[in-house]
Amino acid sequence: MDSPANPGADEARAFDLNAIGDEFLENPFPMYRALREHAPIHINPDGTYFLTRYDDVMAGYRHRAMSSDKKVDFKPKFGGGPLYTHHTTSLVFNDDPYHKRVRKLLAGAFSPRQLAALTPVIEDIVEKMLDDVAEMGSFDAVTDYALRLPTEIIADMLGVPEAHRHLMHGYSNLILGALDPIVPPAKMAAGHQAVEEFGALLADLIDHRRKHPGEGERGEVLAALIFGEIDGEKLSDEELVQNCIFLLNAGHETTASMVGHGLATLLENPVELRRLQGDPGLIEPAVEEFLRLQSPLQIGHRKATEDVEFSSATIPAGAFIHLCIAGANRDPEVFDDPENVDIGRDPNPQISFGAGQHVCMGNTLGRIEGRIAIGRFVERFAKMRQAGEKRYHGRAKFRGLKTLPMEV
Ligand code: HEM
């Protein structure tokens, strides 16, 4: 089903997340607007709920009767294969107490001390990337720039050796792509294989770090995850591997989308670009605005464990709910002139990092990466320009650019 350029009430009521077409993948925002206006608590033909208003999405994230556990819901999609093991073992798709145990263990990786140690690492990587694109002159801002930083950072955190780093983007793409509403069989098979291959690589790294605990380079957190204990319990090998894979997925594609979208938004809004170049201190609110306008994770999910009241309807116990962060982030009840970019927007209570118990653990790290990668880019390249058509990689849940040709 393709969504028309300006959908209205009829199109909103007929919306089917399982039948979205290319036009929606290219630009879902007109449909999100129509849903917010005409069907804010929309029921898809498969009986699942799709929420687009800010207050409802926030309520969904914060309500205590909302489960993240996907052991039942992922069974028909993934069977019993590696993708099932991966997604149902990662903390994000679990409830407490398991979720809380893993979250506490990972917390050290995102402590202020760890982030302070990572900041100069990020600055060094960004300077090197800037030198490289300056030398190229003409390049793809997604593959040659945006994707490189988070890949390096997470590879450093997990201690992945140089020789294997080029594989990580492909793994993450396949594992996250399998979460989309529509997944062709070949892609599903490749997703299963990606979990197996990356899992085997991580198992080797974990084994090595167990034998040589003190050898981690700067920024590495693997030893803390291997040896850390909560209430006398360590993570099992399977839990370790799957949550390390999750760290790559969680922090890599999303951060790259933020940087790619940030640069594209500035190229398309030259007044805002000049504003930022004239006042580099605006980089903090600018990054919040890029996150609001183009949420890297557009849609989250929960299951109601009891009847829950939302703004205009009660959703029954057992219902599967899609929480549309991207729709909420453009709700005119909360944001003035929401379809347009204002890099100085204040206040900007965007919710691209989610909310509640599962709020993104990497939100400060992601913000630091965004500020340095985008801020340094526009400072260094006063004459940056677009050199071809940008294209999206065509996924509904994790929305990002596949390519953004640029010249500096
Ligand atoms: C712009 C970048 C990022 C965005 C937009 C983003 C977005 C999100 C969102 C929306 C969630 C909540 C999922 C849910 O409640 O179902 C989440 C969870 C998470 N994110 Fe991020 N993320 C980003 C960067 C990162 C980075 C850099 C890391 C780490 C390297 C990271 C690690 C995590 C973890 C561990 C969770 C799971 C938290 C839990 O379940 O308790 N994220 N992220």
Secondary-structure element series:
HHHEEHEHHHHEHHHHHHHHEEEEHHEEEE
Number of domains: 1
- Helix vs. strand class: alpha+beta
What's the CATH H-level superfamily name? Answer: Cytochrome P450
CATH architecture annotation name:
Orthogonal Bundle
Mean pLDDT level: 94
Gyration radius, in Å: 21 Å
Shape: globular
Could you tell me the strand content as a percent range? 5-15%
How far is it from the N-terminal to the C-terminal residue, by CA? 39 Å
In terms of quaternary structure, the protein is single chain
Tell me the name of the CATH class.
Mainly Alpha
Question: What would you note in describing this structure?
Answer:
- Strand 6 (308-309) and strand 7 (314-315) form a beta hairpin.
- The protein has a single domain (40-407), classed as Cytochrome P450 (Cytochrome p450), CATH 1.10.630.
- The chain has 18 helices and 12 strands.
- It has helices at residues 9-13, 22-26, 29-38, 54-62, 74-78, 82-89, 98-107, 112-136, 142-146, 148-158, 168-177, 185-211, 222-227, 237-268, 270-278, 283-293, 325-328, 363-380; strands at residues 41-43, 49-51, 66-67, 138-140, 299-304, 308-309, 314-315, 320-324, 385-386, 391-392, 401-403, 405-407.
- Helix 14 packs parallel to helix 18 and helix 16 (283-293) packs across helix 18 (363-380).
- The strands form 4 sheets. It has a 5-stranded mixed β-sheet with strand order 1-2-8-5-3, sandwiched between helices. Strands 4-12-9 form a 3-stranded antiparallel β-sheet. A two-stranded antiparallel ribbon has the order 6-7.
- The protein is of the alpha+beta class.
- The structure holds protoporphyrin IX containing FE (HEM).
- Protoporphyrin IX containing FE (HEM) binds next to helix 7, helix 14 and helix 18.
- Protoporphyrin IX containing FE binds at residues 68, 91-92, 99, 103, 106, 154, 247, 250-251, 254-255, 258, 296-297, 300, 352-354, 358, 360-362, 365-366.
